[in-house]
Amino acid sequence: MIDFRSDTVTRPTQAMRDAMANALVGDDVYGDDPTVNDLEQWAAERHGFESALFCSSGTQANLLSLMAHCERGDEYLCGQQAHNYMFEGGGAAVLGSIQPQPIENEKDGTIPFTKLAAAIKPDDAHFARTRLLSLENTINGKVLPLSYMAQAREFVNQHNLKLHLDGARVYNAAVALGVDIKEISQYFDSMTVCLSKGLGAPIGSLVLGDKAFISRVRRWRKVLGGGMRQAGILAAAAKIALTEHVDRLADDHTNAKTLAEGLNRVPGFKVNTDVVQTNIVFAKVDPTIDQPALAAKLKEKDIIITPGNPMRLVTHIDISGDDIDTFLKELDIALA
Length: 336
Ligand SMILES: *Cc1c(COP(=O)(O)O)cnc(C)c1O
Hints:
The protein is built from 14 helices and 12 strands. The protein is of the alpha/beta class. The strands form 3 sheets. Strands 2-8-7-6-5-3-4 form a 7-stranded mixed β-sheet, with helices on both faces.
């Protein structure tokens, strides 16, 4: 199968399966799992934070972070397109009594500081208390520049806010910028990292922050039913994702560029290659093309796409350069 739906569809490698089979485990709710403890200690150091927590998903990692930064009646500033506003079921409001204050993202994914400043509420009983700015990098495959993140740090310092990064795909950002992950993480009070997206672990995300913050995160994780027992089985694969699968993200980015350029040669498809900065391609598709029929034809050739306009195609560890060529060939045939 050549599956373009998401970078979450990857299967664990043999090395991951071996590590999972052989992992030393214990009850992590008691703090007894040596493989989880190793991952959390290693990850804290690697990303330049005091502490880390392994949890089940990116959505949970964001929710725990928001609940650990904000109390009932507080609010967080975020992008209108932010995953933790748009695509997490309103969890912060539903489960945390925290109000989101979304602000329109610019085309490049940034949020203008003038608009952010204007959205900060005065200290007055009419208003929610503005506590946090939450950014996302990459956002829809686009990379926020280091200079923007540095300015965001200055902004939150000036306004006495905390700064969170939804870093589900932060390693794609680091690889695209050609910098060590700490060049990005240094600006943030907290950061989440998805290990089951481009990095190829089967399950798991990290929350990173200082000791006091992570102990609040750990508490909320238990409250939300996210305490896991012999989770070392998962942490073993997660460690390999972080140690072995980072540099190869550059291949996904190259493949996405090749895919974008190839699609621009297909009648009825149009990609703005300027915004293909990492592993996500958005193609505008001529509305006369019957996309469900196209998807069905490609499925017969073991190729999976998600119909949509724009159509989103994501490259990952289980899609090779040859697979891109195969897809473009089969797409031409299916459209003929
Ligand atoms: C996928 C994603 C998440 C959520 O991760 P899940 O593991 O799917 O819950 C959060 N933020 C961003 C930016 C994402 O792309």
